[in-house]
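Possible regression after last week's pipeline update?

I re-ran a chain I had predicted before the update to compare outputs. Posting the input and the new output here so someone can diff against the archived version. Not blocking, just want to make sure nothing changed silently.
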Amino acid sequence: MSHAPLVLGKFSLGMGDRFAHEAEAQLAACILAEQHGVALTPVWNKSNREHNIIGSEPTGTRQAADAAVRTLGWKGAYFLDADHIGLKTVDRFVAVSDFFTIDVADFIAQPADPAAVQAFVQRHPELVGTLTIPGIERPMQTTRADVERTAAKFLLAVQEAGKVYRHIAAVKGVGRFVPEISMDETDSPQTPPELLVILAAIADEQVPIQTIAPKFTGRFNKGVDYVGDVVQFEREFNEDLCVIAHAVKHYGLPANLKLSVHSGSDKFSIYPAIRRALTKHGAGVHVKTAGTTWLEEVIGLAEAGGAGLALAKEIYAEALSHIDELSQPYATVIDIDRRRLPSAAEVQGWTSAQYVGALRHDLKNPLYNQHLRQLLHVGFKVAAKMGPRYLEQLQSCRVSCARNVTENLFERHIRPLFI
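New output (post-update):
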C-alpha cells in the first residue's frame, strides 16, 4: 500500500521533554494556538546525548507523545525528532522517529575531495558571477574561487548528510520521514551566498530536506535571550528566506522547505524580526524550544513550595558544585559569569518567589538571573541522577509544573511568533 509523503506543516515547534512528563502540557499550548487560528505542528525532540545522560530510550519519548495526542484528542499531524543524529547514532531512533535532524556540523571545514569540488563547480556555473535573487536588494557577486572555497568547506558535510539520509530511507522508505540538515553548531555563520551553494549541493545529493538549520549571526545560548545585532540578524534571516525560495524553484527542493531556528527558545529580542520576515515572505519556520521545558518543571517545583521547593534548591546546589562537568558539553552555547551565581547557602534561604523570580525568564523582574538560568538549563543531569525521587516530586507538583510549561510555550513563544 502506498502512502502520501509525510509533510511538515508551515509552522512547527520543536519541543524538548527531558523526562517525558510534559507532553500533554506542551500539546495544550499547541491547542491554544489552534484556538487562536494558528496551525502549529508539534515536534517532540530529544538527542542521543540527552537519552544517554538521563538513561532513557526514544521509545519513551514516542509513548509520551502518543499518549498526549490520545488524551487531548489532537487531530493534527505531529512528529518525533531524532535530534542531532549522525551515522553512529541514528539506528537507535529509526524505528520510532519520523523526523531526523541530521547534524553534520563536525564535517564542516573538513576538506572535501578536490575532484568532487571541481565537479560541483562545473555542474553549477549559475553560482558564479552576478546572482539576482528576488527579494534581495543587491545582486550577489561571486567568483569561481568563492564557489570553490565554499564547496571545499561544506561539500563533505553535505555528502555525509546524504549518507545518513539514504541509511534512514533504506529502513523507513522514501517519504516516510521528515529530513532536516543542521549546520548550526559551528564556529561562524553561513552567509546567504554560502547557503545557496549548500542548498545546491543538497539537491545534488537528492536529500529532500524540509528544514535547514544554518548558523545565524549572534549568540544563541541555551535558554536565554539572543545576544547580537538584531538588525543584522533580521537582514540575514530575510535574505536566507529569499535564498531558500530561489533554491526551491531552481533545484527542485521540496516546496515546503523552511528555516529551522535551533536553540530558538527564549530568543525574545529576535521574535519580532522573525515574525515580520515570515509575514513579508509568506514563509514558514521551525523553532526549537528544547530544554526550557525542564526549566519550567523546576520553576513548577519551586512555585509549589514545601518539598518541591526543597528539591529545587537541592538541584541548584548540586549543579553549582558540578558546574565544570555540566557546562563542558555545552561550552559553545552558554555564557555563565560565575561571579553572578548565588551561593548554595544563599539559595537555601530563598522563598518560592525568590527562586521562581531568579529562574523564570522575565526580563522585567529584577530578580531574574540569566547565569543561574543557564546553569540549571545544563543541570538536568542532576535531576536524572535523582531518578524516581525527582519523577515522584514532578507528579506531586503536577499542576504547577504543567501550568508553567503550557504558559511558557504559549505566552512567551507561540504568541509573539505567530499570533
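Follow-up from reviewer: compared with the archived run. The longest strand covers residues 40-47. Marking as no regression found.
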